[in-house]
What we know:
The chain has 520 residues and is an alpha+beta fold. It is 34% helix and 27% strand. It contains 14 helices and 24 strands. The strands form seven sheets. Strands 11-8-12-13-22-21-19 form a seven-stranded mixed β-sheet. A four-stranded mixed β-sheet has the order 3-2-4-5, with helices on both faces. A hairpin with a 2-residue loop joins strand 15 and strand 16. Helix 1 (2-47) runs antiparallel to helix 14 (492-519). It is elongated, with a radius of gyration of 34 Å.
Amino acid sequence: MSNNTNEPNSVVEKDFKKRVLKNGTMSALLVAAAVAVVILLNVVASKLPSSVKDVDLSGNLIYEVGEQSEKIIEGVKDDVKIYVVGEEGGIDDRIRRFLENYTSKSSHLTLEYVDPIKSPAFLSKHGLSEDSLLVRCEATGKEKVVPFSSIVVKQLDRNMYIYYQQAVYNEVSFDGEYMLGNAILKVTNPVEYKVYMLAGHEYTAMSESGQAVEVYAMGDNVRKNLEEIGATFEDLNLRTQGSVPADADLIILNSPGTDLTDEEIKALKSYMDQGGKMILYSIFTANPNTRQPIDLTNLYDFCRNYGIEIHNTYLGDMTYGSYTNASGGAKQDAFSITMKANGDDEIISGLSNQYMLIYLPQGLSKAEVRSSVTVTSLVESSTKAFLYPTELFTQDSSEIQFDPESIYGQYYMGLKAVETVEGKQSELVVLTGNFALDDSLADYYPGNLELTRQVVADCLGGDASSVNIPAKSLVEGSNTFTLTDRNVVINTVGAGVIAVLLPLILLCTGLAIWIRRRKR
Length: 520
């Protein structure tokens, strides 16, 4: 009888053990499958390019390829190779990720990493140093070097230097899009433009050796920067040559200290009538003996003919004027104007984040002009600007008393005039302020140089494209979400799968099994 009683229990026990074994095997298989999926995702993610696996979560999106960069990349028709010179494992990860993302946008752009220790001959051949890029186009034979320091820009901490005499440099901006886009345009552009510097009217002063020197000459760095967009420079003296050469793409008159003759004006008018382009950097000049403004009637009449009125005195601005330390405390220098470009011309559309210093500018106004001329602003003052009264120039500074508020108004420091006649478009740009093309000013205030660069590129037109992409701030820091890391086996995606996705899958699987068994 005991055999009959124990037999069913034995069957139940065996069935229970089978179910436990089956469920245990199923759980083990599911866990194994989950681990396999994580490992597979990790392997696949490690093979993806940075453009896919890196998601930029920084506030300023330093790895993002913007609209203007997209247009530059689309325009690349010849193969461009970007050599990244740096020790293996020592290249700034931000630069590496940006380059991989940038070059993934076109099959014409390729990356090659060069270790300076392993390939010293390559560096010597191209005049390179460590931590730099070489952008080269074989079709044109042109190449451009971009130091890493031009991409991740550092700035001297003035407080540390002034108060503690320590030269501490802080990272302030990431300028990858601008530097790489500019380099690509330079090496792929086979065109060169002839720019004539109008000579014979330089503002000169006596040096310590007793020789006359040009005070406001174009700086070497500024010249090299403009050469990057295809400009080649040559002096032109209209007094001796009589006319503008036929190959002139642009004429620049920089800070004239004397007026133009009637013959020179006639030659310039003939050039402009044929669709000529001209840039005038205008400064206020005074006779050192009489302290009265120098007569530049012919030049100013020439500009007025294109709707640009130049006031031959200084322009002050009580809103944008800089504050400088002086005896007795802080003092506003209304004639040293620090501001952002704020005109209505498309040239300055990308300069809204870059500051300029306009030192001792003249005031400009829009003059009545024929309907075929359109005048647009490049740099506007505030409504609290004023023209310095010329009658006060002969007085001692201690005697000068005037109320700028009584003559407040709005003026311009940069105007552009365009005229189209019979299909030919002429262009005249007037920018005011001393040291406009000075290297030291361009170094401290990149907006000055960038405005000049954009104006020159606009006048040259055609293929003289110029990059106009503001740098992205690094002051607030940046974070990057990465799908894989060289030092982590189970990455963020894997952790997410384990923590969220797999439990949901297991829960749904278990629920389905339970429902199916309930129906049996």
